[in-house]
Amino acid sequence: MPTKIEKDVFSGRDTTGHEWDGLKELNTPLPKWWVYTFAATVVWGAAFCVLYPSVPSLRGHFDGVFGYSTRESVTADVKALEAQRAKVLERVNATPIEQVRKDPQLMAVATTAGRIAFANNCQPCHGASGEGRPGYPTLASDSWIWGGKLADIQQTITFGVRNAHPDARASVMPKFGADGILKPDEVGAVADYVMTLYGKAQPGPATAKGAAIFAENCVACHGEKGEGKREVGGPSLKSAVHLYGDTRDAVIAQVTNPRQGVMPNWNTRLDAGTIKSLALYVHALGGGE
Ligand code: HEC
Ligand code: HEC
Fold this sequence. Notes:
Cytochrome Bc1 Complex, Chain D, domain 2; 11 helices; two-stranded antiparallel ribbon; 289 residues
């Protein structure tokens, strides 16, 4: 159909040339401000694509002329925050640990830093509130394997237990059963005796034999009456808090083939101020001496 553009007599505008049953369509252009705004957004969009990370590709995306990256700006923010924290932690670090405990302001900083570091590093093994779990001692009770004074705790955290660090706390319970030092019935007897120490079993006819085996093989690390020996990390066997459980099977398993749990050294992973804060935090969990 041929189109015929003509002037509309009433509005004075051009028609588009379209006509339906005698009705003609007026050509009403978009307002100028709209057209310019639209053009501006196109220019803006194109410029943005050139300057900033934009077009995706198979191996990532076009980086943009400015090379801007949100990851880098987050990293910078984190660095700034760390520097700010380091300054405060430096004061904790420079103050003797006993004195930090007496200074409410420093103690507040140390407790916060300790709580965060604990959640990030210690919780998986020791539990969210230091309640412990089988093989991982509770840190919230006054039953300590290596000692509950601030200095003891700080030392344990710094160098750990039975890891490769030369200053790690080390002591290895012999494999009495697995290495044949004790026969199975002797292991059973000593287990019966150990269970009387924490009141889970009554002394019976076999306990005397177990007591004799204990006196000969176990007191060096666990003490005359099973009260524990911190110098050699022998846990108390009288305590209601157990590292591996209080059943006869658990005791037999330990005497047969000790687990020898490993606690990492943190001196290569955390700075001294953070370790000090952790010691103060752990000390305050409920069992500090
Ligand atoms: C991979 C698991 C693991 C992680 C992570 C871990 N620990 Fe331990 N921790 C242990 C084990 C296992 C022992 C017990 C070692 C033993 O048998 O003497 C222990 C012992 C301790 C003790 C000594 C308890 C006592 O009764 O004397 C303290 C204190 C301690 N951990 C604090 C921490 C702190 C603080 C952190 C975090 C910075 C941490 N641990 C992270 C496994 C872990
Ligand atoms: C050389 C030191 C040493 C000697 C000797 C030793 N132990 Fe141990 N014992 C330890 C240490 C260290 C642990 C800590 C557990 C671990 O991670 O293996 C332990 C843990 C235990 C536990 C687990 C305690 C808990 O809380 O669950 C029992 C039970 C135990 N010993 C019984 C004995 C008996 C019985 C003997 C003697 C037949 C004995 N031990 C001899 C060092 C010793």
